[in-house]
Design goal:
By secondary structure, this protein is mostly helical. The chain contains ten helices and two strands; from the N terminus they run E-E-H-H-H-H-H-H-H-H-H-H. The protein folds into three domains: about 120 residues, no CATH class; about 110 residues, Glycosyltransferase (Alpha/alpha barrel); about 30 residues, no CATH class.
Length: about 260
């Protein structure tokens, strides 16, 4: 695979009953063992994270799962041992060969329990919610995980210094404010070059108070924005008869699952 880092061999994806977690020490045999020893990491190892995950968003904002695919293919690679059908027609043979290579490739990526892992990158409003919830409940993440979060968020900053709703999106106030707050929670100094630029982008685009209700809610939870500026949500609406056209159960699932706990 192109652009392979030698240190990728130290990473492995641990899976168990639907859980997926990256372990950065090859000695980790399972998720629980990794989590028990996750803080046993040196500053040199943490510094290596930035080298492991160098990322050029301008080329392609998606990860391509390069680390996982490189590891999986190296662990399982072997030439196809089955019988390949032969055709007298060159074009048909090309199709057959391509199918065999494709099947072989995806067999490398399949985990022992039968599923195919994949990067769930995209929305940029999920990690900030997790970080804010962890912050207000005093539930710190391991240092190594915090460092990886910083790298992820900084890697996905747009060229104009903002962030979008998702990794391919144009910069928005919601995306930018949420990532800015997240990086500050993670300990990035306000004078960090990328945060200074992000703060300028926020001010030039109306300020943090211009974000939509989801963002206002999170800022209010952090005591950064007055609840008086937040439109109330009524949990009593769930007591309405279900035949009512405005009953919340009719909302799009992602809106429904957000606005119910917010209420």
């Amino acid at each position: 695979m192109p652009n392979v880092n030698a240190s990728w061999k130290n990473w492995q994806l641990l899976t168990e009953k639907g859980r997926q977690i990256w372990a950065f020490k090859p000695s980790s045999n399972n998720i629980n063992e990794h989590l028990e020893n996750v803080d046993n990491i040196t500053d040199e190892e943490i510094a290596q994270f930035a080298e492991d995950f160098q990322f050029d968003k301008s080329g392609n904002p998606n990860s391509g799962d390069k680390v996982f695919r490189n590891t999986a293919i190296n662990a399982k690679f072997s030439e196809f041992q089955g019988q390949i059908p032969k055709s007298q027609h060159p074009k048909e043979q090309k199709v057959i060969d391509a199918l065999i290579k494709g099947i072989n490739y995806f067999s490398y990526l399949q985990r022992e329990d039968g599923h195919w892992p994949g990067d769930y990158g995209g929305p940029l409003f999920l990690l900030p919610g997790l970080l804010i919830a962890a912050y207000i409940s005093d539930t710190p993440f391991p240092k190594a995980h915090q460092e990886m979060m910083k790298i992820y968020l900084l890697n996905h900053q747009n060229q104009d210094a903002g962030w979008g709703m998702h990794i391919e999106g144009e910069s928005t106030l919601f995306g930018t404010v949420m990532q800015y707050v997240s990086l500050r929670i993670l300990g990035i100094d306000k004078n960090h070059q990328q945060l200074v630029k992000a703060r300028t982008w926020i001010k030039n685009n109306g300020g943090a108070t211009g974000i939509p209700s989801w963002g206002k809610f999170y800022l209010s939870v952090l005591n950064l924005y007055s609840w008086q500026g937040f439109n109330s949500l009524f949990p009593e609406m769930w007591l309405f008869p279900q035949w009512l056209p405005v009953h919340p159960w009719r909302y799009w699932c992602h809106s429904r699952m957000v606005y119910l706990p917010m209420a």
